């Protein structure tokens, strides 16, 4: 958590594109009360082990471990962690304000590269309705479902589009979340295919 906050602070002062600052806490529950920074003995006794990170406006990452803890208790833990990492975000903003006031801050110029709309639309249309309950199944069934969807996606895209057309699009494209992982895998396979074809010729 300390390393994450330190990295966030550095990025917040660097003038680079950054949707932060971010902060986080690892919390448990001791004697019926939520607590952060548990020692090893306390963590062993805690029925709950939550790692929560986020920004000022909300939670962006959760890792959870629990021993038959009710859903309401998990939600309460998330809310408690969110409330208690806000001071770290406030301090980062105050540090940035002082940095600007002292004349040290310089915002870097950058070019915003957005996803290719044509590819985004095609991928979203293809994946619509194909995830549903399949992405909520337990491992390893989850991995199997995702692999099957990915293979079907690759096969249909290869059949529908030429390699040259898709390679050109991928060079200028960026996707996000799980769809981006699909696209990057697809891109690597297409790159290998092109390399193999070049080697043959």
Task: Give me the count of strands.
Answer: 4
Strand order of the largest sheet: 2-1-3-4
Number of helices: 7
User: What is the terminal separation in angstroms?
Assistant: 53 Å
Catalogue the unreliable spans: 170-178
Supply Rg: 23 Å
Residue fraction in strands: 5-15%
Structural class of the helices, strands and pairings? alpha+beta
Mean pLDDT: 81
Task: State the order of secondary-structure elements, H for helix, E for strand.
Answer: HEEHEEHHHHH
Helix content: 55-70%
Provide a descriptive summary of the structure in words.
The chain has 201 residues and is of the alpha+beta class. It has seven helices and four strands, in the order αββαββααααα. It has helices at residues 2-14, 40-45, 71-101, 117-127, 141-160, 163-171, 177-200; strands spanning 23-30, 33-36, 48-55, 58-66. It has a four-stranded antiparallel beta sheet. A hairpin with a 2-residue loop joins strand 1 (23-30) and strand 2 (33-36). Helix 1 (2-14) runs parallel beside helix 3 (71-101) and helix 6 packs across helix 7. The radius of gyration is 23 Å and the shape is flat. The termini are far apart.
Characteristics of this structure?
201 residues; alpha+beta; single chain; four-stranded antiparallel β-sheet; 4 strands
Q: Summed up, what is this model?
A:
This protein is of the alpha+beta class and 201 residues long.
Layout of strands and helices, then pairs:
Elements: H1 2-14, E1 23-30, E2 33-36, H2 40-45, E3 48-55, E4 58-66, H3 71-101, H4 117-127, H5 141-160, H6 163-171, H7 177-200
Antiparallel strand pairs: 1-2, 1-3, 3-4
Helix pairs in contact: 1-3, 6-7
């Amino acid at each position: 958590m300390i390393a994450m906050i330190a990295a966030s602070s550095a990025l917040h002062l660097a003038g680079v594109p950054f949707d932060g600052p971010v902060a986080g806490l690892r919390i448990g529950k001791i004697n019926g009360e939520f607590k952060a920074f548990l020692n090893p003995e306390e963590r062993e006794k805690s029925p709950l082990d939550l790692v929560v990170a986020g920004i000022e406006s909300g939670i962006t990452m959760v890792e959870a471990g629990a021993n038959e803890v009710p859903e309401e208790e998990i939600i309460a833990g998330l809310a408690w962690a969110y409330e208690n990492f806000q001071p770290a975000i406030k301090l980062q903003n105050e540090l940035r304000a002082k940095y600007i006031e002292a004349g040290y801050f310089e915002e870097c110029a950058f070019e915003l590269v957005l996803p290719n709309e044509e590819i985004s639309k095609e991928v979203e249309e293809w994946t619509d309705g194909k995830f549903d309950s399949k992405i909520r199944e337990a491992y390893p069934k989850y991995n199997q479902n995702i692999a099957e969807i990915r293979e079907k996606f690759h096969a249909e895209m290869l059949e529908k589009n030429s390699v040259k057309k898709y390679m050109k699009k991928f060079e200028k494209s960026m996707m996000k979340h799980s769809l981006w992982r699909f696209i990057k895998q697809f891109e690597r396979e297409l790159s290998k295919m092109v390399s193999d074809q070049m080697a043959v010729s």
